């Protein structure tokens, strides 16, 4: 029996359960996006991002065991995975404010958004693993890579130039002088919540970004199933098309 056939016959989960399992990730993700950014300002993005990725990697590694245990166990892990990863992207921005000079931030953010290239590389690798070793191998390989990445993160990343033990004085002074007092921890400014939530440009960003994210994750989560069961594509063909989509 091929790994693909084994995947089809192992779990007796109907379409509703499968979609529910995919969607419950976003329950957790939604809950920590705003708190994640604020928590990074309080205790540091290094810990928020690093520990979130470390926990997400552990969850990924144990997911196959949970799937063999029960459907509910997978649901719980998916929600926890969302909680962990929801805090990561917002945590990057406080760190950006402390490390990247203002004139270089747009280029830095643009390069950071090129992370889609990583997904374009990972997808064919995962497709090969599924076809060759079974679906569990994807969780094991990506989870272990995440664990190694988390170790590297804590070794090389620090919350500010002043805290980094290996940065040169010249580079530290350059960054601190370029940023100036933008990261000073003086009296907190009052946030103009009313002006923010009554601003038409803010709502334009919220609506367009929400629509973009909805469309993106709908494609990511649902199109593979449609291509496999309706268009009769195999896993390798689905992965190849998704690589072009991500690029």
From TrEMBL:
Question: Which residue ranges run through the membrane?
Answer: 48-66, 72-92, 113-131, 137-158, 200-220
| Membrane topology listed for this record | Multi-pass membrane protein
Major facilitator superfamily (MFS) profile domain location is 1-247
For this protein, the record's InterPro entries field holds:
MFS, MFS_dom, MFS_Na/Anion_cotransporter, MFS_trans_sf
Q: Name one Pfam family in it.
A: MFS_1
Source organism, top-level taxon: Eukaryota
The reply on keyword Magnesium is no
Q: Where in the cell is it found?
A: Membrane
| GO molecular function annotation | transmembrane transporter activity
GO cellular component annotations, sorted alphabetically? membrane
Q: Which UniProt keywords apply?
A: Membrane, Transmembrane, Transmembrane helix
Q: Which GO terms describe its biological process?
A: monoatomic anion transport
**Name this polypeptide is given:** Major facilitator superfamily (MFS) profile domain-containing protein
């Amino acid at each position: 029996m091929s790994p693909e056939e084994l995947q089809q016959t192992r779990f007796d989960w109907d379409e509703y359960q499968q979609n529910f399992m995919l969607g419950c990730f976003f329950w957790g993700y939604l809950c920590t996006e705003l708190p994640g950014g604020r928590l990074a300002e309080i205790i540091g993005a290094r810990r928020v991002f690093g520990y979130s990725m470390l926990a997400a990697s552990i969850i990924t590694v144990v997911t196959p065991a949970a799937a063999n245990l029960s459907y509910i166990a997978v649901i719980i892990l998916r929600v926890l995975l969302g909680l962990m990863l929801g805090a990561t992207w917002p945590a990057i921005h406080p760190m950006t404010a402390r490390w990247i000079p203002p004139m270089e931030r747009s280029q830095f953010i643009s390069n950071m958004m090129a992370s889609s290239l990583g997904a374009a590389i990972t997808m064919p690798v995962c497709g090969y693993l599924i076809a060759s070793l079974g679906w569990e191998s994807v969780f094991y390989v990506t989870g272990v890579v995440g664990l190694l990445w988390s170790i590297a993160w804590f070794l090389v990343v620090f919350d500010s130039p002043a805290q980094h033990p290996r940065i040169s004085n010249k580079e530290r002074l350059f960054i601190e002088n370029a940023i100036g007092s933008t990261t000073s921890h003086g009296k907190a400014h009052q946030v103009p919540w009313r002006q923010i939530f009554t601003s038409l440009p803010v709502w334009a960003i919220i609506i367009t970004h929400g629509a973009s994210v909805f469309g993106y994750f709908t494609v990511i989560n649902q199109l593979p199933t449609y291509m496999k069961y309706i268009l009769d594509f195999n896993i390798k063909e689905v992965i190849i098309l998704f690589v072009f989509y991500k690029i």
